[in-house]
Structures are given as C-alpha cells and as structure tokens.
Specification:
- This protein is α+β, with helices and mostly antiparallel strands.
- The protein folds into two domains: about 70 residues, no CATH class; about 60 residues, Nucleic acid-binding proteins (OB fold (Dihydrolipoamide Acetyltransferase, E2P)), CATH 2.40.50.140.
- Helix content is about 50%, strand content about 25%.
- The protein has a five-stranded mixed barrel with strand order 1-2-3-5-4.
- A hairpin with a 2-residue loop joins strand 2 and strand 3.
- Helix 1 packs antiparallel against helix 2 and helix 2 runs antiparallel to helix 3.
- The relative contact order is 0.10.
C-alpha cells in the first residue's frame, strides 16, 4: 500500500476521534496528516512528509492555544451581569451577612469597612458563592 494511503487513513482516524472529543487539536493533526499524504502522493520523500506533518501540527497547535486563550470565558460574563444589581439584606453583622438576590439567599461580605448596611446595597463583585457588596 502506498504511503499516502497510510497518511489519509491516519487522518480519518484522527478526525473521527476528534468528533468525540471536541478539542480541535486532533482535527489539526488530521489536517497535518492529510497534507503529508498529499505530499506523499506528489512524490515527496518520507523525511519531507514527516517534516510537513510536524510543521503543520506545531503551527496549528500554537494557533489553537492562542485562539483558546483569547476567547472570552462565559463564566466571567455571567458574573458581570450581576454587578450593579441591588440586593435585599436579610441579616448583617460585622461586614458579613446574608442577602436575598434572584429569589435565593446568598452569603455576602462588605466591599470595605465604610459599607453601610442601612443604605441600599449593590453587588460590586462575585467571589465564588459570595457576593461582595457596596453602597
């Protein structure tokens, strides 16, 4: 069997496994195998085929890492929607307490020592399951 068939079989396997993982890395490696198979079909030597596959895989991996780091994280945007929203104080003592927000009780803490719980409080930040409140 010709070398390009082996490359294309490897590409099919990698892309097939990628369909179950959803990370896109195996898709990049599958594309590298397709291009290496194309090089083999055009008559390139084994060293050239391996070098082509390695370069495409490396560049693709770096591009995917850059893309995944630059995309927005959805969990931060969900928390950003809470910032600035008013809450209703249920109990408060010493800069900590419980507040009612979105129909549930939340643990809360004061943003600073000057936060007055007698005044209306709004969400300034979210730390895990704790709301940070300020006036």
């Amino acid at each position: 069997m010709q070398a390009y068939f082996w490359w294309w079989i490897l590409a099919a396997v990698l892309v097939g496994v990628e369909l179950t993982s959803g990370t896109f890395y195996l898709l990049v490696y599958g594309i590298a195998a397709v291009v290496a198979g194309l090089a083999a079909w055009l008559g390139a030597g084994v060293t050239a085929q391996l070098l082509i596959a390695a370069v495409i895989a490396a560049v693709g991996t770096l591009a995917l890492r850059h893309w995944s780091r630059s995309t927005a994280h959805p969990e931060s945007t969900v928390q950003d929607m809470d910032i600035g929203q008013p809450v209703q104080v249920e109990s408060w003592q010493g800069g900590r307490g419980q507040v009612k927000y979105r129909g549930a009780l939340w643990d809360a803490e004061a943003e600073s020592a000057s936060t007055d719980s007698a005044q209306p409080l709004v969400i300034r930040a979210v730390k895990g399951n704790t709301l940070v409140l300020g006036n």
